[in-house]
Amino acid sequence: MESNHYNSVSSAVLSKQTKLPLYVNEVFNQKQELEYRELLRQSKISLQDCDFLLEKRKQDIYTDKVFLDCFAFIRKYDFLPKGVLTDCFTKSLKFVYDLKQQEKKEQEKIEEERLRAEMEASENDWRSNSDATNSLKGDISKSWKRFLEIQKGVWLHHSMFSS
Predict the structure, then answer these.
(1) Which of 51, 61, 104, 118 lies at a C-alpha separation of 20 to 30 Å from 27?
(2) What is the mean pLDDT of residues 53-72?
């Protein structure tokens, strides 16, 4: 077997010996999940408790996957001092989550600006509709006055010739 300068087995050798074909892992995981769901179905617990346990199991599965990925990563670089790996992992983790938080803030800012623009547009529409209504009222008022003047003239004209 190969070994590095720390006198441990190389990760390449370990991964060749322990890797199962992907479909075997998939079938195994599906079988385990079905067995667990059947166990929950047969138990006498509430639906809320079942949901809680399934969610907890899902989180546990994610945790296990993270551990597996971390183990593979650590084994790949196990020739480096522990402090180097810890420092790199910590900095990478901080960078990724700071970036996610910054992107979230930018998305919130964009959404806030979009809402503000929609409100301003709505307010402008209301004002323009209000102005149009006032203009229309003025036009109707002018037309009504003109109609009354014409009617008055017709009445006067009619009264002058009818007597």
Answers:
(1) 51
(2) 87
Helical ranges in 43-81 per DSSP H: 47-76
Return the number of other C-beta atoms located less than 10 Å from residue 33's C-beta. Answer: 14
What distance in Å separates the CA atoms of residue 104 and residue 106, rounded to the nearest whole number?
Answer: 5
Distance CA 76, CA 90 (A): 17
Last residue of a domain, one of 53, 79, 105: 79
Please count the structural domains in the chain: 2
Spatial distance between the Cα atoms of 132 and 40, rounded to a whole number of angstroms? 66
Give the span between the Cα atoms of 54 and 36, in whole angstroms: 9
pTM for the complete prediction? Answer: 0.45
Same domain for 56 and 129, yes or no, is no
Dig out the tokens for 130 from the structure.
Answer: 């209000």
Give Dmax over CA atoms of the chain in angstroms: 133
Cα gap 157→71, rounded to integer Å: 107
Place of tokens 């964009």: 110
Listed in sequence order, the residues at least 6 apart from 6 whose beta carbon sits closer than 8 Å to its beta carbon are: 78, 79
Q: Quote the domain boundaries for residue 36.
A: 1-79
Among residues 63, 53, 57, 59, the alpha carbon closest in space to that of 32 is found at 57
9 pairs with which residues across the strands? 3
Confidence label for 98 from pLDDT (cuts 50, 70 and 90): very high
